[in-house]
Every structure is written in C-alpha cells, then in structure tokens.
Amino acid sequence: MSSIVNLSGHLEKLVGSERVHTSEAVLKAFAIAGRAPMAVLKPRTAEEVAEIVRFAATEKLAVVACGSRSKLELGLPPQRYDLALDMTGLCQIAHYDPGDLTVSVDAGMPLSELSKALAEKNQFLPLAVPRSATSTIGGAIASGIDSTLRQQYGTARDFLIGAEFVDGTGNRCKSGGRVVKNVTGYDLHKLLIGSIGTLGVITRLNFRTFPLPELREAYIVTFPAMEAALNFHDSLLRSGLPFSNLELFDPQFSALLAGYLNQAGGGIPGSPGKSAWHVFASFEGIAGVMERTQRELRERCVQAQGTHKEKLNAGNSQQWSDALRESFDWLRSAAASVALLRIVLPQWAPRDVAELHQALTQSTLRSAFALRACNVAYLALLSEGEDARTSMAIEHCVSEVCTSVEAKKGSATVLHSPTWLKDRLNVWGPKRADFPLMQRVKQAFDPHNIFAPGRFGGGL
Amino acid sequence: MPPAPMDQALIRELKSLLGPANVLSQKEDLMLYEFDGSVEKARPEVVVFPLSTEHVSGIVKLAAKYQTPVVGRGAGTGLSGGALARGGGVMIVFARMNRILEMDLENRRAVVQPGVVNLDITRAAEKAGLYFAPDPSSQKSCTIGGNVAENSGGPHTLAYGLTTNHIAALELVLPDGEVVRVGSRHGDSPGYDLCGLFVGSEGTLALVTEITVKLSRKAEAVKTLLAIFDAVADASRTVVEMTASGITPAACEMLDGWTLCAVEDYIHAGFPRDSAAVLLIEVEGLREAVESQAAAIEEICRVNHARDVRTAKDNNERDLLWKGRRNAFGALGRLAPSNYVLDGVIPRSKLPEALEQIHAIGKKHGFQIGNIFHAGDGNLHPIVLYDPRDAEQFKRAIAAAEEIIRMCVSLGGSLTGEHGVGMEKNELMPLLFSDADFDLMRRIHDAFNPDSSLNPGKIFPLSKGCGEIRVRKSGQAAGGRQ
After folding, report:
1. Do A432 and B459 touch (CB under 8 A)?
2. Domain annotation for chain A: domains and CATH numbers
3. Cβ–Cβ of A411/B429 closer than 8 Å?
4. Structure ipTM
5. pTM (2 decimals)?
6. Nearest to A307 by CA among A340, A265, A273, A284
7. Is the dihedral of CA A44, A50, A56, A61 positive or negative?
8. Chain A residue nearest residue B433, CA to CA
9. Which region among A422-431, B145-154, B399-408, B448-457 has the lowest average model confidence (pLDDT)?
10. How many A×B Cβ pairs under 8 Å?
11. Could you give the domains of chain B?
12. Taking a C-beta distance cutoff of 8 angstroms, is the pair B241, B300 a contact?
C-alpha cells in the first residue's frame, strides 16, 4: 500500500467513509503500548469484517480486533499493528431462547447489556469479569480473563457452545452450534478463548445461560495470620457447599481493597486491620441451602479460629463482589509501577504462600496477594518509582516468583506491567513443550500472520 | 480388484518391535476388529497391542515408513465407526495399556493410560468420595482413550458436561512419532486450549497415550424419580417446562412405551408396561437442594398429567432403574438381529415436535422406531431395528436415519451429541458446515496429520476438504454400507 491516503480510500470502500477513522485522537485511543494503528474501522456486520480481513490478508496488514479496549495490554504488544477493528458496531442479540437456556450474541455487545436482557428472563451468564460496565462479550472471551464465579460455574469453556469468526484468510467460519450438547466437528471455539485476537476475529458467540440464583449472601472473615486463613479457605473449598467465590487476601490487598471500596462510596464492615488476613465467601441458592451454608461456615470459622466474621448485607455483599471482580483493574493502577502476576499452582499449601511472601520481604517493592478458588492467585508488585532501580527490582521479583512456581509445576503469567518493562519480562512464563503445536494452530487459523502478531511471543 | 497384500516387512518389523504376541495379522483374527458398535464395517490389515508410549511412537514411525494408515481403538464400543480401519492398515488397540498410573485424590486428579475402562477410574476413586463424571452407557467396557477421542457423553452430561470438561492434560503421539504433552495437571495453562482441540478430534489429529482426568466429588444426596405418562407429548412437555423453569437435574432420560416393554421383559426394572413414556429423572447435590428440586420436578410432572411419580426408595431400586436404562439398547437387541442407534441433538424446546417427526419418519420407512434418550439436553437416540441380511431393509434403515438427522438439523440442532461423526455422518457434515468451515478444519487437520495417515476417512466428507485422504485401494476398507 503506497500511502495512507491510498489506504483510507480502500478502507472507505469496504465500510463507508464514516466508519474509517484516521484522526490522531482516535488512533491514539486504540494504541497498544504506545503504538497506534494506521486506521480504525468500525464494521457493522460479520461480512464487513470478512471483507476487511481479506483486504488485510492481501496487503499483509496486521489487524487487532477491539471491544471496549480494557484488556488490550494482555500479552506482549503486537509486533505489527496496522488496522484496529472497533467491534462495537456488531452489538445485537441474534437469538435468545430462554426456554432452551441458550443465547447467541454479537461479539461487540457490552456484557452489561446482555446481562440486562438475560435478567428480564431471570437468567444470567456467569462471566463476572473486570470492567464489566463496558467490556464486550467478545473481549471477555478473547482475553480469557478470569471470572470470579469460576468456582461455581466453571470457565467460559464450560458454557461457550459455539462461535462464529473470521479466520486469517477472510473466511467466515463457525464451530459448535446453539445446542447444549454437541460433538460435531473440531471444537475450534475453545481455541478462541484466551487467544487474545491471534487466531480470528470473533463475530458471534453462543452460550448456555443459567437461572439467576434465588438468594446470594456473603461473609467476610478475619484471621490474625495466614495459615489459619488458608486452612479455612481450603476447608470451604472442600466442603461441597455452593460457594460462588472464595477469595483469600493478605493485609496489603485488604488495604487496597478498602481504599477502592471507600472510593466507590461504600463503607467496609469489619474494616480490615493492618495485619489481618481475610477470606471473602459468597454463596447462593435456595433458603434451606443458604441456612446450612451459613451454619457450616460459622462452625468452620470457629474451628479455624477466625477472629471476626461478618455477614454482609445484600448491598455490601454486592459491593464486595463487584470490587473483587474489578481487582484486575484497580490493582493495575494501585501504584506508579505495577506488575500484576497470575499464578496457578496444583495446590496452595501454607508453605507456598509463606515462601512467596518471604521472597517479597527481601525486596524493596510492596506487594498485594489474593488467592481465589481453583488455585488461581493474583500477586501485585507495587512501587512508586519508575526508575532503573524499580525496574530491576520488579524484574528480579518476577523472575524469582516464576522460577519457584515452575518448580512447583504451576504456571505464572504477567497480566500487567509497565510498558517500558514488558519486553524484559517473560510475560507468558517459560516456553512450554507444546508451543510448537500452538504455532501449528496459529498457522492454520492465520496463515498470513495478520492477527495481532507476536502477542504470545515467539511468533504467535 | 483383489486386495493388495500388506507389506509383510512391516508386519515383521512390528513383531520385532512389540513381540509376536502383540501383533495379529491372520484373517480370522482381524475379522474380530472389523466392527464396532455402529452399522459400519472395515477390516484392518494388522492389529497391534502396544504396552507403552514408546511402542506407540515406534508403531507410528514404522507405519509412516511403509506409508500405511493407522487407527487407534479402545474397546470398540463406539457408535460412529470412529475406531474402524476405513483405510485398512494398522490398528492400534490400546487394551493392554490399561494401567492407572497415579491417583492424586488430594487434588482430584488421576493419570491413566488410554486403555483403562471408564468405570475403573471411578472404582479407584470412590473410596475417597470421588468419581469420574462422564458416564456413557457402555462405561463398564468402554475405555477412557475412546471417550477422549469421541468426547463421549452420558446421562449425567446434562449437569456435568462431556468428557472434555473433565480432562486436564494429555500425552499425544503425532503421526511422525513425536511425543508431546498438552494441558497441565492444574488444567489452567497459558496459551491456546490444545486439550480442548484434541478431545473429540476422533483420532484424526494424534493418538492419545496418557490422560490426566479431573475427578468430581460425589454428591451427598441423590434422588431418582420415575415419572409415568400416558402420552409421549405430556412427557416431552414436562422436559420443556422443567428446562424453561431453570431446573437442571443431574440426568433426565426418556424411554417410550414400546422400548419400556422390551426393557421390562429383559431387565424387570419395574417400568410400567402399559405407559406411553417414562422420565427417569435424577437430582443430586446438597440434601436441602435435592429435596426442593425433587418437589418442584414432581409438581411439573403432575401439572403435565403424569399418571404417577415414584421415587426410588433405596440404592437398589435406583440401581435397577438405571440398569434398565443402561441396558435398554441390549434389550431391544433381542427383538431384531440388529439395531441402529442414532444420535442427534435438538434445542430442548423442540422435543415434542421432534418426537412426532421421528414417529412419522419411522412410519414412512416401515419401522417402529424406539426412543431412549437424554431428554434433558435434547440429545435424541432413536433406535431402528433391522435385519442386516435384508439389503433392502438395511437401505431403508439408513434412509430413515438420515432423514431423522436432517430433521434435527432443520430444527436448529446438530448431527451428533456424543457419538461422534466418524464414518457414519461424515457425508452429512455439509448440512452444518460450509466450504469455508471445512477449509479451516482441513488446515487444522493437516497441521497435525498432513498425510491423513491417522484415521483416514473420518469426520470430513470424502469429497470435501481432505482430498488426499487415503481410503486404500486395497479394498480392505469394504464398509457395511458401501
């Protein structure tokens, strides 16, 4: 493509001039790690997406599909970035069959709007992901970001039943369907979850939906020390009781959470003490189940020697749930320099948490730690500095943590770090043995390597 | 043209790799492996029994050297011809790779070889209150390797999902003999969900040599209800209303009256012989939830004119009802020389309509079609009884089957809910997938299995996509319906 003017002309032919944006302000709004695209396009239909991708494939232009742009920083910045697709123009519910508990929705639809439509039929989609006010459904799936309801409802792979997408040749493809049980053809839609835009442009997603629970309640329990809190957390996880979210956090995380809750205008019952560890437990169901869950929770709390337990009222409970759902977001901005790690271990014993904290006390960095259900933990490394010393401290810490996690057969990834540090951190952890297989998948989906090239590193 | 004999040098090399006791090449031995649970038929040219991953890798390398196709097989209970040697060649039977390698009860994981029988995983885990959730009707004999290949389901898929929801990691052998691991013990590794791709790929991408499964906690309370109806339409409306009201039982099975009689004659499970249909509904979970769910379900059944709703009094009664369900196909087998169990899916709200259409299609082709199926998730299993010696009748059975599957698709459903595409429905795939879809699926296929040496002739229509799929000219692949 000889010039930007030429390019705009071609793009305008594809989607109309009012849907091609090249002003500096718009391009800047779509920048990733400081790199802006040459143009932003806002397609209205899957066919327009396909036409754009066909054009991009011919011209070897790199394409990044965007929703609300709240999680574009995940992974490495793309090595090339020519066109941004603003997918929010595809925003309809294509089919909703409440009687079948299935919904088919365009990728650009905001999750909040989808939730509203489902709630009218007393249903919901258990994707409690950060930035939920603006996040699109396509972004929630492509980012693979954690949902706080995972303990009860599983991950998206458990309720995504089909997808439509445009592959790297500009073909409109699909996988799965709109029925809840289906083994026809390869499960390609599962590959799209967490693929951060590197395999295809998602245009539509099909889900099974769930009835809204009758009642939801939550407790916050305080412990003087980590070990008791972790044992309590573990005993609840193994109880078989219907906990939707079980989250344990250290004193530093509590303090940041308190700050966030205050800012959001909510008081904090049982306000976290400076050295206290906390377990947040939310659960749902019918009245009989709630009574029993509360009873058993209180018993286990006594056994675990919790110093304070407080049942949150409906409003507070919602506030806490929302705040924990958004932790990915507010942790990112909790200090001038933040590295946010996601750590999964086969299991978390008190020794593992202690070792992690021990390693951090030797650093100049502050930290905050939260352990969710399903062995997923978040660790934020915080510093007010933005200098070489900070950079070295973060690098050192991340590398220590990753080495230790790897030795325990877990995995650690960096969800967020200062841009200037990103290429020095191993954001995806050590290269996995199956990486060459992933390269084959990428090559099959995107033979011209035009979708967000390089976001997984190593050419993916 | 008479079949070209397999290269004897390959057989000699296989014997030297595995020992002669682990290689079968006599016609009378091979004939045992030309069937599975489907109506298809295809004979391998040599059957081998590896004992280790190294063996599998070695076999695959030898097969590549002699440009011979390879197909994996577990217990051969599959219902779509997935484990048949459509391209002739080498059949790898995993029956002797049947060790449970590790039970990690603390973290609810088991590491097993592919030849382990599905139910044996549960047997090894149940002392800790755990079990392996996917429960195909053949779970006493089918292997976990086959379950992984086909992404098998079962009655309790309704609440707990298919096999894919219970697999954390796999060890694979690629067609060039390379051994790779995908996924991780904790089941949450960064990058693409390769486990999700390989599970259900029907042996067309790789051979699975080790599986890390997730174990589930047994529910503290179970209640099994038998709702009896005088009209099939009432039973199907009950399912529709139950779904719409947001109740998800652990299982919800329907048996129609005709099937019930056959089952009752065989199993004596206590099914009423004079009803039009029954629903076998199971609720599981916390005691409090089970009680309230069971009450709500009973109410919906009664509103929809259930003649009676019985609750299994104890485990014995419960086991008997399930025995009746699990052996229903066997019971029908007593009525005709052969039966064809179909597998289609429809949106659950279309159940009454679908059952009416199945009845009409049966009538049109001259069959009484039985229905024993997973009603709760819209997974139909119409069963056509026929005599395979009567070529004309067999042709009609196939025609009726195809019409039923087309009907499922036209109602917004799908070709298969749990049996797989295999060589049963590969020619029907264009009902759901476009040329663009096939193009991508073919690229995925070729990325792992570029020469179509692994399980050729499956999933893809022979005319589409994998043009180079080698159905060997040897004629060894003579299928049941060819």
Report:
1. no
2. 1-212+431-460 (3.30.465.10), 215-325 (3.30.70.3450), 332-422 (3.30.70.260)
3. no
4. 0.96
5. 0.96
6. A273
7. positive
8. A174
9. A422-431
10. 222
11. 1-218+433-482 (3.30.465.10), 221-410 (3.40.462.10)
12. yes
